[in-house]
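Students often ask why inverse folding is considered easier than folding. One informal answer: many sequences map to the same fold, so there is more than one right answer. In these notes we will look at a single instance of the problem. The structure comes first.
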C-alpha cells in the first residue's frame, strides 16, 4: 500500500515537473501580407522633382534638343537617305555633363547588330524572301548609320564612341548646368524595304509601276533623355522597346524627287512653292471644310504622277516647335486629302496620304477616322496641341510619330474588303493618331515602360471607338475590355510578365502592355472609381504631364490624389503581379426575422450572468434550419407587426404617420463569396427579382480587407430574389464564370445539347 502511494506521489510529482519544464510555444510573427498594404515598397520616394501627389515638383527639370537638318532622299534601286544636322542641346539639369549620348536607331539594321546577336533563332524557320537574303546573304541589304562627321560649330572634330545603337560624344569640357552646346553630325544610310524586312520605317516597292512609297522615321541621330530618374536613358534599341526622347524645335529641309508628294511633322512653310496652284487652292478650301475631306491630290492625278519619274528635285521645308521627334512620308503615288476639325480652342487639319491600292477604303474612312480621334481624345484629355494629324497608308504598318503615323489596310485588286479589314484599319488609325497624346505629348519612357503609352492609349482608343460606332452604324469590336484578357490570364504563367516590366523583356507585349493595361483602366472607370472620379483623375494626369516626362509612380499617385480613393491594392495586384481573379458564389441562404430569444441570445445572457428576460432586446436573423425557426416566420405578414420588440421600439420613437411611411424589406439573403485566385476585386452583383426586374450592386474591393478568401453580404429586399449573378459582364476579368450564378445552372449533357440542336 505504501509502495502504491509512493508510486502515485512520484508520478504526480513527475507530471508537475514535466509541466514546469514544458516551454511556452512562441508564436511566429510575419510581415504585413495584406493585399491592401500600401505600395511604398514598390514606388520611389517622393522628392522635390516628383512629388507625393504625382505632380512635378518645384525642382523638376527636363533637357531640350533643337535640330536644324538638311535631308536628301535618293530614290534609286537601293534608296538612300543623306543628312546633315546641327543639334543644340540645353542642359537644364542641376548637373554638369561630361559627355552626351546620341541614339543611332538605324544601327539595329547594321550587319551583326546587337539585336541580332541576342535573339534566339530556334523557332525562326519562316522568313520572307527579303529577310532571308538580308539575314544570310553577303549580297543582302546592309543597313546602319554611316557617320561621316561629328564636329563643333568651328569645325573641330569631337571624339565619339559608337556602342551599337548609342553614340557617346565626349565634350572638351563639361557642359555646365544651365548651359547649351551645339555640334554637327553628317551621316547617311541605305533605306530598308520594310515590306520585305519588317520595320517601323523604310520603303515599299510597287513592281507594277516601279515606284516606291517612303515612310521615314528614326532617320537621324537623336539625343537621348537625361532626367532625374535614370540620368542618361541609354538602353540599347533592340526592336521592341521604343523611344525616349527630349522635346525640342525642328527646322527640317527635305529634298526629294520633284514629282513626289511629301508631308511630315511640323508646319510646311513653303507650301505655295511645292504645290501646284490647283493643289494650293484646294488646300485653302479644306481649311474651311468640316463635313468631309477635300481632295488635294486626286486619284487621277496620282495615277498620272506615277508615270513621271523625273530627275528633278524639290525641297520641302518644315518647322516644328516643342515636339519630341520628326518623321515624314514621300511618294509620287500619294493621293492626298484633308478636312478641318473644330476643337474647343482651335481648328486643326485631319489628313490622309495613300496610294491608289488603298482605294476605295481609305478615301471613305481614313480622314474621317482621324477627325473622330482628334475630337474624342481632345474631349477626354486636352485639346490636340498641334495644327495637323496625318494618316499614311503603308503595308502591314501601325506606327506613330508627332503629327504623322503609318497605318495598314488595303482592299484586294478589285477594291473589295471585308468588315474585319475595314474595322481593323479604323482601329489602327484611331490608335496611332491617339499616340499623339501618349507618348508624343505626355512623353513617357517607351524604352522602359511600354504600358504607359500603349496601355493608356489602347484604353482611350476604346472610348473613342465606342463614340465613333454611333456615327458609323457598326461595331468595331475594340480590345481592352476585361473579359477579353481572360484567355491570356488563364494561360501559362511561366510565359507571363507583370505589366510593370521592361518593354524588351515581355513574352506577350500585345496582351500585357496593351490589352491588360487597358483592361485595368476600364475596370477602374467602370467598377472601382466610376466615370466621374476616373475621368477627372485621368484628365488631371494628362494635363499635369503634357510636354513632360512622367514615370509610373506619377501616374499611380495622380490617380489617387485626384480621386481620393486608395488604389494601392489595385496597382499591386494588377500591375505588379500576374495574379488572377476567380470569384465564386459559394452559398446563398435565406434569412428570417425574429425578436424571440435565440440560442445565441440565451448564451450571451448566461455569460453576463443575466436572465434572458432582463437581457436587452435583440432582433435576430436566422435561417430555416436554425433550431429557433418557427413556421410563422415565413408569413408574408410584415415582421414589423409580428415582432413585439420592434413594434415597441417604433411606437416609442416614431409617430404613426412616420411608421406608415416606413418601408422595411420583406426578404433577407446572405450571399457567401469565395476568392479562388490571388487578386482582390470589387464584387459586382446583378439581382433578378421574381417580377422580372433587375438591379446592380457593387461592393468595393476593400470588403476583402480582413479575409481575402471568404466574405459574405446580407442583401435585404422588398421583392423576392430569384437569381443572383456575380459580375455577369465580367468587368473584373474573372477567369471562371461557371460558379458565378445562383441558383446553380444545371449543366447540359452532350445528349441535351444534341437534342436542342435537333429539328423535328
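Output (designed amino acids):
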Amino acid at each position: 500500500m505504501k509502495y502504491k502511494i509512493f508510486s502515485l506521489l512520484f508520478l504526480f510529482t513527475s507530471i508537475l515537473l514535466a509541466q514546469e519544464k514544458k516551454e511556452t510555444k512562441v508564436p511566429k510573427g510575419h510581415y504585413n501580407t495584406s493585399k491592401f498594404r500600401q505600395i511604398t515598397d514598390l514606388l520611389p520616394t517622393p522628392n522635390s522633382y516628383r512629388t507625393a501627389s504625382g505632380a512635378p515638383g518645384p525642382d523638376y527639370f527636363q533637357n531640350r534638343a533643337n535640330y536644324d537638318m538638311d535631308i536628301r532622299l535618293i530614290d534609286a534601286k537601293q534608296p538612300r537617305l543623306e543628312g546633315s544636322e546641327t543639334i543644340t542641346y540645353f542642359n537644364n539639369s542641376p548637373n554638369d555633363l561630361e559627355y552626351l549620348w546620341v541614339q543611332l536607331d538605324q544601327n539595329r539594321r547594321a550587319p551583326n547588330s546587337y539585336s541580332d546577336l541576342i535573339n534566339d533563332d530556334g523557332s525562326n524557320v519562316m522568313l520572307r524572301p527579303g529577310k532571308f537574303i538580308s539575314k544570310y546573304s553577303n549580297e543582302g541589304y546592309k543597313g546602319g548609320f554611316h557617320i561621316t562627321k561629328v564636329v563643333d560649330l568651328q569645325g573641330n572634330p569631337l571624339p565619339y564612341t559608337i556602342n551599337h545603337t548609342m553614340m557617346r560624344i565626349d565634350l572638351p569640357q563639361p557642359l555646365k548646368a544651365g548651359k547649351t552646346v551645339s555640334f554637327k553630325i553628317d551621316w547617311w544610310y541605305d533605306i530598308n524595304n520594310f515590306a520585305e524586312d519588317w520595320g517601323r520605317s523604310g520603303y515599299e516597292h510597287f513592281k507594277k509601276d516601279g515606284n516606291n512609297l517612303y515612310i521615314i522615321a528614326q532617320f537621324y541621330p537623336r539625343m537621348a533623355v537625361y532626367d532625374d530618374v535614370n540620368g542618361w536613358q541609354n538602353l540599347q534599341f533592340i526592336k521592341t522597346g521604343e523611344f525616349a526622347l527630349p522635346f525640342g524645335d525642328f527646322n527640317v529641309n527635305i529634298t526629294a524627287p520633284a514629282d513626289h508628294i511629301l508631308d511630315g511633322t511640323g508646319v510646311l512653310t513653303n507650301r505655295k512653292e511645292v504645290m501646284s496652284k490647283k493643289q494650293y487652292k484646294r488646300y485653302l478650301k479644306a481649311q474651311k471644310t468640316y463635313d468631309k475631306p477635300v481632295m488635294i491630290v486626286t486619284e487621277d492625278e496620282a495615277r498620272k504622277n506615277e508615270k513621271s519619274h523625273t530627275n528633278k528635285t524639290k525641297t520641302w521645308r518644315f518647322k516644328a516647335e516643342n515636339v519630341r521627334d520628326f518623321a515624314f512620308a514621300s511618294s509620287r503615288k500619294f493621293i492626298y486629302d484633308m478636312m478641318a476639325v473644330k476643337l474647343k480652342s482651335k481648328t486643326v487639319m485631319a489628313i490622309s496620304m495613300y496610294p491608289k491600292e488603298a482605294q476605295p477604303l481609305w478615301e471613305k474612312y481614313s480622314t474621317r477616322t482621324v477627325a473622330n480621334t482628334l475630337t474624342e481624345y481632345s474631349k477626354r484629355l486636352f485639346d490636340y496641341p498641334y495644327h495637323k494629324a496625318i494618316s499614311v497608308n503603308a503595308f502591314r504598318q501601325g506606327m506613330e510619330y508627332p503629327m504623322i503615323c503609318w497605318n495598314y489596310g488595303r482592299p484586294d485588286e478589285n477594291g473589295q474588303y471585308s468588315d474585319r479589314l475595314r474595322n481593323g484599319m479604323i482601329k489602327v488609325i484611331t490608335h496611332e493618331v491617339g499616340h499623339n497624346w501618349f507618348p508624343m505629348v505626355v512623353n513617357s519612357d517607351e524604352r522602359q515602360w511600354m504600358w504607359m503609352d500603349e496601355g493608356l492609349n489602347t484604353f482611350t482608343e476604346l472610348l473613342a471607338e465606342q463614340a465613333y460606332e454611333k456615327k458609323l452604324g457598326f461595331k468595331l469590336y475594340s480590345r481592352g475590355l476585361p473579359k477579353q484578357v481572360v484567355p491570356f490570364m488563364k494561360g501559362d504563367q511561366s510565359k507571363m510578365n507583370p505589366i510593370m516590366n521592361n518593354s524588351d523583356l515581355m513574352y506577350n507585349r500585345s496582351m500585357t502592355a496593351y490589352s491588360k493595361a487597358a483592361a485595368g483602366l476600364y475596370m477602374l472607370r467602370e467598377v472601382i472609381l466610376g466615370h466621374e472620379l476616373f475621368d477627372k483623375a485621368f484628365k488631371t494626369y494628362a494635363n499635369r504631364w503634357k510636354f513632360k516626362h512622367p514615370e509610373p509612380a506619377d501616374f499611380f499617385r495622380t490617380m489617387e490624389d485626384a480621386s481620393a480613393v486608395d488604389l494601392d491594392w489595385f496597382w499591386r495586384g494588377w500591375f505588379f503581379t500576374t495574379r488572377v481573379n476567380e470569384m465564386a458564389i459559394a452559398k446563398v441562404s435565406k434569412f428570417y426575422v425574429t425578436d424571440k430569444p435565440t440560442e445565441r441570445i440565451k448564451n450571451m445572457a448566461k455569460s453576463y450572468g443575466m436572465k434572458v428576460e432582463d437581457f436587452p432586446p435583440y432582433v435576430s436573423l436566422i435561417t430555416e434550419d436554425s433550431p429557433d425557426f418557427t413556421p410563422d416566420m415565413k408569413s408574408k405578414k410584415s415582421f414589423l407587426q409580428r415582432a413585439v420588440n420592434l413594434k415597441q421600439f417604433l411606437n416609442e420613437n416614431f409617430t404613426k404617420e412616420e411608421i406608415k411611411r416606413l418601408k422595411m424589406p420583406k426578404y433577407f439573403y446572405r450571399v457567401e463569396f469565395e476568392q479562388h485566385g490571388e487578386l482582390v476585386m470589387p464584387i459586382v452583383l446583378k439581382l433578378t427579382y421574381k417580377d422580372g426586374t433587375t438591379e446592380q450592386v457593387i461592393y468595393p474591393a476593400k470588403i476583402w480587407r480582413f479575409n481575402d478568401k471568404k466574405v459574405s453580404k446580407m442583401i435585404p429586399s422588398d421583392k423576392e430574389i430569384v437569381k443572383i449573378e456575380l459580375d455577369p459582364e465580367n468587368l473584373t476579368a474573372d477567369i471562371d464564370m461557371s460558379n458565378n450564378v445562383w441558383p446553380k445552372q444545371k449543366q447540359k449533357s452532350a445528349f441535351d445539347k444534341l437534342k436542342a440542336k435537333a429539328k423535328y
